[in-house]
Amino acid sequence: MEAHGDRLICPDCGQPILVPDDAQAGDLLECPECAGILFRLQPMSGRLQGQQVQMVSCPGTDQLVEIVCGTPVGTVYHCDGRSYVLTYAFGSYALEASSSRS
Asked: pTM here?
């Protein structure tokens, strides 16, 4: 998603997301209407673009893990010395314990 002037447009709800004047690549911006939907600013073609990310909690530690939009269900994440599998249900990502150990 490309920054249009000083704002991004959320693809889920259409709400404009203001981009601060001092925004830099790597900054996270949150949609004011969509719970848990964030956008990481990335440089592309000399402009800042927003890449959608969602945050989920590691079941073992409650540490937040960043999930990039489009990450396939079944992707394995490692946290707290354990493996967790990415799931998606009811419009939300989650991590579930995997039977394999890391």
From this structure: 0.66
